[in-house]
Amino acid sequence: MMLVSSLRRASHAPWFTSIVTVVLLVIMLLAGAAGYDGFLSPQVMLNLLIDNAFLLVVAIGMSFVILSGGIDLSVGSVLALTTMVAAFLLQHWHWPPLLVMVTVLLMGAGFGAAMGAMIHYFKLQAFIVTLAGMFLARGLCYLISIDSITIDDPFFTAMSQTRIEFAGLFISPSVVIALIVLAVAIWMAHGTRFGRAVYAIGGSESSAMLMGLPVARTKVLVYAFSGFCASVGGLLFSFYMLSGYGLHAQGVELDAIAAVVIGGTLLTGGYGYVAGTLTGVLILGVIQTLIAFDGSLSSWWTKIFIGALLFVFCVAQRIISLGALRGKPAGSAKAAPVGASAGFSKLS
Length: 348
Known about the structure:
Strand content: under 5%
Number of strands: 4
């Protein structure tokens, strides 16, 4: 009885979905190892990171947006726009690679900041503003060119072909960049005032304002960071594909949201671990790898499995929310987000 009671209490805790995500990842890996020879080989596991480095970076930016109680549907289009602008500047205007990278990163951050400012100061729904941003960024891609632009710049080619080898294994430079972004993001979320403000705003924006937190600045910075991460993801995607194209990264914004939610971050905001996003991205990668190893299933089964997982995790999040409400005395207020650096915080 005590074990059942403990499990029931744990199921209502905000960290429960993060634990479930890790357990699910382990089960999927063991199932793959049991069904397919070589599935758990170290290089196959590293290939998960190589193939999904750009998605990890985009999902990290999305994590901050969702933690703040918002949503960003523009990240896939910003990623595609980054590849197009980078390819155009490199191939047609012959800009130096470093200047191109700085330019597209500033472009992404500025695009996100503009959306964040509109959301906060004009009191517009994030869904609508970022949906408009999605159409705008995707349309700008075709304004540059309706065709794919091949990148043959030596630096981009080197980044695409370079292998960082160790112990007979290898990873790409994009994996290193993605892991650095992840480490910085974890520190930002759990070790800075900015991170604590993000959690507080996601819990209750009105309470955060009463506490004197810089709500306006934080919301603009959150969307600026998401746009910045989308542009970093665009550069990594450019290294991966060596081209810019308006059709690149279609649906990536939905994959990023799925990775964040499956990684344990609540869509309502205020609860979640940025590190959990890595687990979410790995689960998406494992699903793709299982289908590739099977060989008899269409790639569309990836979307079916991801959709089913999303349904399960959304229901689990709802159960957690209802459990938290049932366990809260009527009229009581939640604590201030002093524990954000240790994990979660939530206000109401």
